[in-house]
Design a protein that fits this description.
Length: about 750
C-alpha cells in the first residue's frame, strides 16, 4: 500500500481511502502511546487542554495535608476519587448512555444540561468518565474518549483532537488542517459525514470505539460566529452518532439558559428534549457527603454543626462552586489552627467568601497592577447578546499589551490562580499555547468589582469583540477583500478605533486595526474607481498634459504649509488644495489641521477625517461633509448653512455659536458635543445622537425630525429654543438650576 505524507490534503472523491492510507504507518502503535492519551480504568482519554498548576510549598509536617477541595475549578477526569455526593446521578447517566448504545435506532448523543453552578461539567468529567473506565459498555472494553471545548472554531478543535489521537506529533498542524477540511464536506445526502468517515478507519475501531465529550457546548453559540462552521460541527456529531455501527458516541454539557439556542438545529433540540439529562440540585444528604467525605479521606472530621450550616447556606442554590471555595478557605484555616466555625464567620459564609477574597487580592495591588488586573478580567468575559455574560478563554499573549509588562501580567495571573484562590485557571492548549480563563462563571456574577467594570465597559467591549471577530474571519479567509467592512459598519469601526485608542481595555488589537485600515483602503479604492473617476478625470487629464510630478508635490507641500499656520487669516488657494488632497486619496491627512477662518464653501469632502482640527469661523456652507470625522474638532462660529453632515461623527466637537441652518444632520453622532448658542433652525436632525450634549441657548426652531427622546438624552438644556412638538416641561432634570427661562 502506498504511503502518503501528513501534508496531503483529502479530496471528497477519495477521502476515505486517503484516510485509511494515512493510518497505515500508525496502525501498529499501542493506543496508550498516542499523544495526550491517559488511562482511566479501561478508558483511554485524550484532553484538548492540560491544566497547569503553580508550584506550592508543602505544609509543615505537623499540619493537615493537601487541600482536598476543588475551589472554583471544575472536577476533572482524574478527580473521581474525591468527587462525592453524585453517586445516584452517575449511575443514572451510565444507564442512560448504555440504553442509547444498546438501541440500534438511537442517535447516541447524551446531552447533560443544567444551570451555571449546578456541577454539570464535574458530573460528566469526574463522574461519568471514571464510571465508564471502571465499567465499560458491552463491547467497548478499550474505548477512546476525546474531551474538547468548542471555542470560536469548534471544527478546528475537533479536527485537532482527532489528529492528536492518530499521530505521534504533539502539534499535528497539517493533519489538523486535513481533518478540518474533511469535516466541512457533505455527502450526496447533504450530511456532514467527515467525523464518521475519519472514525471508521481508526485502528481497532470495532473494539475501541470513539466517544466525543464536548464540554461547555454553549460556546458553539456564544463564541463561534460562523454559522456554516457551527452547522458543520453539529452535523458531524449527529451524523456519526446516528451510524448503526456504534463506532462514535457523543456526550454534551450545556448551560440550561442556552437551551433556546439549540433551536437553530432542530434535530439536536429534539435530542435535548427526548434524551437530555437535567442535572438536579443536590439534596441535603448529597451536599453533606460532598462536604464531609473529602475531609474524612484526608484525615479530618468536620464538626456536624459547621456541616449543617454549610448545607443550609448552599441548599436550594446553584452555589456548588461557592461551596467548594468556602471549603477551601476552611481547610486553609485548619492548617493555621483556626476553627472552621470561626473561618466561616470571618469570610461571611458561603455567599461572601469569594467576593471578599477577590477584593482583598485586588486591593493588595498597586495602582498600575490594578489597571492591568482590570484589563485581564475584562478580557476574560464574553459579553452576552441577549443572554448572560459568560467566561472567555484568552491566550496569554493577548493579555500582554506590551512586552515590558509581561512579567507583571504573569505575576498578577499567578496571584489570582494560586492554590487556595484559583479565581483564574491556567492551562496549555496545543493549538494556542498558554491559555487563561475565569475558573467559573460564578466569579463573574459574585464579584461586585468585576460587575462594576462590566457595567462601565460592556457596550464598548461588545463592539470591540464584534470587530475583532470580523478581523479573525478576514484572516481565516486569507485577507480576502470580500470579507472587509463596508459602509456604516466601516464608519462605526473607524469611529470606535479612534475613540478607544487611549483605553487599553477596549482598544483594538493590532490585527483588528490592520483589518479596519484594510477595509478603509478598499473603500477608498472603490470610491476612486466610481465617483472619483468622473470628478477627477478632467483634472487628471489636465495634469497629465500640463503638470509635472514636481507640481504634485508642490501642491501637497503648499497645503501642509497653509494648514499648519498660526493665525486665522483665509487663503484663497486652500479650497483647491484641499479638494486635490481628497481626490488623490489624502482625505485622512486632514487631522489636527488649522482651517480657522478659511472659505471652503461648497467643498466636496465626504468621508474625510478632520478630527482634532481647528475649524473656528470656517465657511463650509453647502459643503458635502457626509460621513466625515469631526471628533473633538473646534467649530466655534463655523458657517455650515445647508451643509451635508449626514452620518458625520462629531463626538465632543465644540460647536458653540455655529451656524447650521438647514444643514442635513441625519444620523449624525453628536455625543458630548457643545452646541451652546448654535443655530440649527430648519436642520434635518432625524436619528441624530444628542447624548450628553450641552444645548444652552441653542436654536432648534423649525428643525425636522427632532424628537422628545433625542432631546431627553442631552446633558444640559438652558434657554434652548425647541420646536413645538417638544415640551421642556417633560425633561426638567436636564435644566441647569441657574438657568432662567
Amino acid at each position: 500500500m502506498e504511503n502518503h505524507s501528513d501534508s496531503d490534503v483529502l479530496s471528497p472523491s477519495n477521502s476515505t481511502n486517503q484516510i485509511q492510507q494515512d493510518f497505515g504507518s500508525n496502525s501498529g502503535q499501542a493506543i496508550a502511546q498516542m499523544i495526550g492519551g491517559m488511562a482511566i480504568g479501561q478508558l483511554t482519554v485524550y484532553l484538548s487542554q492540560v491544566r497547569t498548576e503553580l508550584e506550592t510549598s508543602q505544609p509543615p509536617a505537623n499540619k493537615l495535608g493537601a487541600n482536598p477541595y476543588q475551589g472554583l475549578l471544575a472536577f476533572r477526569e482524574t478527580d473521581g476519587d474525591r468527587f462525592f455526593g453524585r453517586d445516584k446521578q452517575i449511575e443514572q447517566l451510565w444507564q442512560r448512555f448504555r440504553e442509547l448504545h444498546d438501541n440500534e435506532s438511537a442517535v447516541r448523543v447524551l446531552p447533560i444540561y443544567g444551570p451555571s453552578g449546578s456541577g454539570k461539567s464535574s458530573l460528566a468529567l469526574a463522574g461519568l468518565i471514571p464510571k465508564l473506565g471502571a465499567k465499560p459498555l458491552p463491547g467497548s472494553n478499550q474505548a477512546r474518549l476525546v474531551v474538547l471545548v468548542p471555542g470560536s472554531h469548534p471544527l478546528e478543535s475537533l479536527a485537532a483532537m482527532l489528529a492528536r489521537v492518530t499521530t505521534n506529533d504533539p502539534t499535528p498542524v497539517s493533519k489538523t488542517r486535513e481533518f478540518a477540511q474533511e469535516l466541512t464536506q457533505q455527502n450526496n445526502h447533504q450530511e456532514y459525514d467527515g467525523l464518521r468517515r475519519i472514525a471508521d478507519v481508526f485502528p481497532d475501531i470495532v473494539v475501541s470505539p470513539l466517544i466525543v465529550l464536548v464540554d461547555q457546548f454553549e460556546e458553539v453559540y456564544t463564541l463561534c460566529k460562523d454559522k456554516a462552521e457551527r452547522d458543520a460541527f453539529v452535523g458531524n456529531l449527529l451524523c456519526a452518532a446516528a451510524e448503526p455501527s456504534k463506532r462514535v458516541s457523543v456526550i454534551l454539557t450545556l448551560r440550561s439558559d442556552f437551551l433556546g439556542e439549540t433551536q437553530q438545529h432542530p434535530r439536536l433540540n429534539k435530542l435535548f428534549s427526548e434524551q437530555g439529562f437535567l442535572v438536579p440540585i443536590m439534596q441535603p444528604e448529597d451536599l453533606e457527603a460532598a462536604i464531609v467525605r473529602p475531609a474524612a479521606q484526608a484525615g479530618y472530621q468536620l464538626n456536624s454543626a459547621v456541616v449543617q450550616l454549610l448545607v443550609e447556606q448552599t441548599e436550594g442554590r446553584e452555589a456548588l462552586p461557592l461551596l467548594q471555595f468556602t471549603l477551601t478557605r476552611i481547610w486553609e484555616g485548619l492548617q493555621n489552627d483556626v476553627d472552621p466555625a470561626e473561618t466561616l464567620e470571618n469570610i461571611g459564609g458561603v455567599g461572601g467568601a469569594l467576593a471578599e477574597e477577590a477584593q482583598r487580592l485586588y486591593k493588595s495591588l498597586n495602582a498600575e497592577e490594578q489597571a492591568i488586573a482590570r484589563r485581564i478580567f475584562l478580557a476574560l468575559v464574553q459579553i452576552g447578546e441577549g443572554t448572560k455574560n459568560t467566561r472567555r478563554r484568552a491566550a496569554l499573549s493577548e493579555l500582554i499589551a506590551d512586552e515590558k509588562e509581561a512579567t507583571t501580567v504573569r505575576a498578577i495571573i499567578n496571584r489570582f490562580a494560586a492554590p487556595g484562590v484559583r479565581f483564574l485557571a491556567t492551562f496549555f492548549d496545543e493549538q494556542s499555547g498558554e491559555m487563561i480563563e475565569v475558573a467559573h462563571e460564578v466569579m463573574i456574577r459574585n464579584w461586585g468589582q468585576l460587575q462594576e467594570w462590566l457595567t462601565e465597559c460592556q457596550e464598548h467591549l461588545r463592539k470591540k469583540r464584534k470587530i475583532e471577530q470580523a478581523a479573525e474571519d478576514w484572516i481565516d479567509k486569507d485577507k480576502s477583500q470580500e470579507y472587509v467592512l463596508q459602509g456604516r459598519p466601516l464608519r462605526d469601526a473607524r469611529e470606535f478605533m479612534q475613540a478607544q485608542k487611549d483605553y487599553r481595555e477596549t482598544a483594538l488589537s493590532s490585527l483588528a486595526k490592520d483589518f479596519v485600515m484594510a477595509s478603509w483602503r478598499k473603500q477608498r479604492s472603490d470610491r476612486w474607481k466610481s465617483i472619483g473617476f468622473f470628478i477627477a478625470f478632467p483634472l487628471i487629464g489636465t495634469l497629465i498634459i500640463n503638470v509635472t510630478i514636481n507640481l504634485h508635490w508642490q501642491f501637497l507641500y503648499r497645503a501642509g504649509e497653509i494648514l499648519n499656520k498660526q493665525d486665522c487669516n483665509p487663503n484663497s488657494e486652500l479650497q483647491f488644495l484641499v479638494q486635490y488632497m481628497w481626490l488623490i486619496g489624502y482625505k485622512d491627512n486632514l487631522q489636527r489641521r488649522n482651517f480657522c477662518g478659511e472659505n471652503l464653501n461648497g467643498v466636496y469632502l465626504p468621508g474625510a477625517d478632520l478630527s482634532d482640527s481647528n475649524l473656528q469661523n470656517v465657511r463650509l456652507n453647502s459643503a458635502n461633509l457626509q460621513e466625515t470625522f469631526l471628533l473633538k474638532s473646534q467649530l466655534q462660529g463655523a458657517w455650515l448653512v445647508q451643509a451635508n453632515l449626514r452620518g458625520s461623527v462629531m463626538k465632543s466637537a465644540q460647536l458653540q455659536n455655529s451656524h447650521l441652518l438647514g444643514a442635513n444632520l441625519l444620523g449624525a453622532n453628536l455625543l458630548g458635543a457643545d452646541l451652546s448658542g448654535a443655530n440649527l433652525s430648519g436642520a434635518n436632525l432625524s436619528g441624530a445622537d444628542f447624548k450628553n450634549t450641552t444645548l444652552t441657548d441653542a436654536d432648534f426652531r423649525y428643525s425636522k425630525g427632532l424628537t422628545q427622546e433625542q432631546i431627553s438624552h442631552a446633558k444640559v438644556i438652558c434657554r434652548t429654543k425647541l420646536p413645538n412638538n417638544i415640551s421642556i416641561n417633560l425633561i426638567p432634570e436636564k435644566i441647569n438650576q441657574k438657568c432662567a427661562y
